From TrEMBL:
It comes from Frankia alni (strain DSM 45986 / CECT 9034 / ACN14a). CDD domains: AdoMet_MTases (cd02440). This is Methyltransferase type 11 domain-containing protein. Residues 53-137 form the Methyltransferase type domain. One of its GO terms (molecular function) is S-adenosylmethionine-dependent methyltransferase activity.
């Protein structure tokens, strides 16, 4: 028997959303992955690095999945629930998790790392990345691109201005990296496919990825959620496009 609206929403509203593990969505939502394989690239770069930094590590899930870490690997995170989660996950791997006051200042000396990585950062402070990299060191990052899951944003908020839809474009990342003195050695973007198979998956996703619908709460959007539940029940999964880009940059020798 299909589960009702209230049951689905109440369940999703009660699930913890700390960390960056989306396994709760297994079977309820799916997201196509970029062809370049960030985890594979991360593992290759880590295996060659001496000192590495993972910026905005979240709950440490991505870093914990790397088979061979750099000889000295450090993670940094600013959100307290994630700091505790990442510490528990990464401490057995010998990786300290450093609490940062913000995502715009890295609490490390100049030229400390030969590799800096970040998966889906909220923002990239390119001058800080350039500062902590050693000459010849590299930065590898997979980032959320422009208008990602925009169909979901517009379902709740209505049509968005072109300036909003154009944010997080890879061209802007390239220009900012160059302005910080880095050489961009790889930049590519893909448009992918995401689907949500029940309204609970949407609630969980919007609670966790808070910039898709800023200020989202179940009570604030209960009416639209109820309409979405009926839409999914009668016509099938809610589909959206996601955008991802890969950027790799190097500090000149």
């Amino acid at each position: 028997m299909p589960r009702g609206f209230e049951e689905l929403v109440d369940e999703a509203a009660a699930v913890p959303v700390d960390g960056w593990d989306f396994s709760w969505l297994d079977g309820r939502a799916s997201e196509q992955r970029p062809s370049w394989g960030y985890a594979r690239l991360l593992g290759e770069r880590m295996a060659r690095a001496d000192a590495a930094l993972d910026v905005q590590t979240g709950g440490g899930e991505v870093l914990a999945g790397v088979a061979h870490l750099a000889r000295r690997t450090v993670a940094v995170e600013s959100w307290p629930p994630n700091i505790a989660r990442a510490t528990a996950l990464l401490r057995p791997r010998g990786v300290p998790v450093v609490a940062a006051d913000s995502d715009h200042t890295l609490p490390f000396a100049d030229a400390t790392f030969d590799l800096v990585v970040s998966r889906h950062p909220l923002a990239t402070c390119w001058p800080e990345i350039a500062r902590v990299l050693r000459p010849g060191g590299g930065y590898l990052s997979q980032q959320v691109g422009p208008a990602s899951v925009g169909e979901l944003t517009e379902y709740f908020l209505g049509p968005q201005p072109a300036a909003v839809r154009g944010r997080r474009h890879p061209d802007g990342a390239r220009d900012a990296a160059r302005a910080a003195g880095l050489e961009v050695v790889d930049l590519r973007m893909e448009t992918l496919h995401t689907e949500f198979r029940d309204v609970g998956a949407v609630v969980y996703f919007l609670r966790k990825v808070i910039w898709i619908v800023p200020g989202f709460t179940v009570e604030r959007y209960r009416g639209r959620l109820a309409e979405l539940h009926e839409r999914i029940r009668t016509t099938g999964p809610f589909t959206a496009r996601t955008t991802r880009f890969l950027i790799e940059a190097r500090r000149p020798q």
